[in-house]
Amino acid sequence: MANIHLENVTKHFGRVTALQSINLEIHHGEFFCVLGPPGAGKTTLLRLIVGLEKPDEGNIYIDGERVNEVHPRDRDIAMIFQNLALYPDKTVFDNIAFPLRERKMPPEQIRTKVTQVARTLHIEHLLERKPGKLSGGERQRVAIARALVRTPRAYLMDEPLANLDALLRLEMRIELKRLQEDLHETLVYVTSDQVEAMSMADRIAVIYKGVLQQCDTPDNVYNLPANRLVATIVGSPPMNFLACKVQRTNGQLNLVHSGFGFQVVGADHPLWDCLCRALPTVQEVLVGVRPEDIKLYPDQPTHLIAFPARVAVTEPLGAETIVDVQLGRDIIKVITPPTEYFSEKQDVWVAFDMAKVHVMDAQTGARIYTTGAPGQLQCMLPGVCT
Fold this sequence. Notes:
Elements: E1 4-13, E2 16-26, E3 31-35, H1 42-50, E4 57-62, E5 65-66, H2 72-75, E6 77-80, H3 92-102, H4 107-120, H5 136-148, E7 154-158, H6 166-183, E8 186-191, H7 194-200, E9 203-208, E10 211-216, H8 218-223, H9 228-233, E11 240-249, E12 252-256, E13 261-264, H10 270-278, E14 284-289, E15 294-297, E16 307-316, E17 321-327, E18 330-336, E19 347-352, E20 358-361, E21 367-370, E22 377-380
Helix pairs in contact: 3-4, 3-5
């Protein structure tokens, strides 16, 4: 196992900054995911760790040893690329055995290790075949086996499931998670698929345009996103954002939207303190609510406060339905059960789960506050604060 530490790592390619002042600590035996859209700098991060690129600034440490100038061969880290790079003219056995033969290992030892790894990945019956005769999932297992057989200090994977179909990706996600738990090895996994990151990782580092946005557990990244970018990258559909003006009148602090309003309850409330300190610099905030934290009602509910809205479009997906709703001047997405039917242009009532409302700075996108309890923000019907 390996502990990997990146300290203020920056990498430029000409005028393009691929990574900017990255600080990360990847722990021994951790399944660590690096998540971000294409072009975020994820692959560059892996190439820096394995030694295929050198940082322009900062330091990289493996088990406390600075490795900026250490050759990739001497870092003892296995990397699995997206294109797999199997030798088409060699059998599965020879592909897996290749790194061992490069080390001049005795043939009997090679056969024992290859057979053992093949058995772990359930591909022992494929050892005499060539890659051209394998399915996508089988080729993926061969590439993983070739990395495992070396017994390196850590494994780096660069979107290894990107070229597989949906069912194979699901199967391989389960297989990779099981494998990592069995081996107890450090695994750094790069992906642009937030489902992969959320389902497999012990921790997730979210990167956007070369800047680390947040590094935390999947639960915290989802429920306590550091900023608007993280809340957009993690979640499908992404979080809804509603621009609200901040108004302070007659000792009351209000967040006003064209379709609803919130009153911040109590001068001792943390959100009150945050907003008051930010005024008059912050004149607008974003109220963020995830689609699954919104409830639609065909009639005005009597047991809670809801806001009038209108259905724009419905997207039936089988297990759930995504309903696009016009709320004031904004369109928001709501996830509803397939048993609830709403038609286009139907008048509805929208209710937020008040324990899961986020407030973010409209200028920087940084999260100012997450309510966390139903009573911390008080809803107001449209027009009350205007």
